[in-house]
Write a structure and sequence with these properties.
By secondary structure, this protein is α/β, with parallel strands linked by helices. It folds into two domains: about 5-150, HUPs (Rossmann fold); about 160-289, 3-Layer(aba) Sandwich (Rossmann fold), CATH 3.40.50.620. About 45% of the residues lie in helices and about 20% in strands. It is built from nine helices and ten strands. It has helices at about 15-25, 55-85, 100-115, 120-140, 170-185, 205-220, 235-245, 260-265, 270-280, and strands at about 5-10, 30-40, 90-95, 115-120, 150, 160-165, 190-195, 225-230, 250-255, 285-289. The chain has a ten-stranded mixed beta sheet, with helices on both faces. Helix 7 (about 235-245) crosses helix 9. The chain is globular. The relative contact order is 0.14.
Length: about 290
Amino acid sequence: MDRHLLVTISNDPQHLHGIRYVAYFFHNKKDIRLTLFNVVAETPAVWAEELSFETVTQGEEMARRNLDRSMKTLTECKRILVQHGFSPDNIDTKHTSQGMSRAMTILREGEEGLYDAVVLGRRATMKLEEILDDSVSKGLLMEEITFPLWICRDPEWGRRNVLLCADGSEPSLRVADHVGFMLEKEPEHSVTMLHVNRTGRARDVDEIFARTREALERNGVAADRIHSRVLESPKVAPAILHEAQERRYAAVAVGRTGAGGGLLGRLFMGSVSMALFKEIREAALWACR
């Protein structure tokens, strides 16, 4: 089965972090489908009393320029991906006008497109951070975000392997299933199951790892590609971040667990996944509900 990713695109060629991450992370590119998605910038609103032939003409011209810029950016991104081994036949481009906030437009497309993951670069992540803060007071949409998010702020080129956070919860098993599906045909990447044991909290780590390993192997990840690691720390998120940095993982995969309110809580429920979302750099964050 093809893996299908929605990759969000910024109009700034200096900030194509999602594109570059996908380009270097995947080695077996023939079974990857990509949809490159750009939200075309809105033209500034004009008050009714300011409407004139001149303002209408200026607005139409700006809209044409924005659309032209979007098309050029999507074409360039497709060129980069083809240059790195993706088949042009497996790359679709899509743009849409910004009918709501940019972040909400992306999230809506992710829901409706049934993608295996939505890849957010630095600019899209910044917009997401803005709407997370804004949504609590305005009560904006989204009962649930059902698709995995890949957060790519400043991914470091050439990193390998996935650090899979395992705590035995249902969301952590779902993210294990996602990691297994994405890595089945990527033997260059291994998976390290990581359990951070808070001081004084005894957990059946063997059972946690057994269930997590089962989810990975069920998706075709060979046993010799799966490793495990236990850390003792009262602060889970800093321990994960240190491990990811120390061993230069390409991705940290985490389940969105706990309870939260507003869109912020629905996207990154729980203090650990929220802390990782805010602090992670150089490795991507894969987050599943």
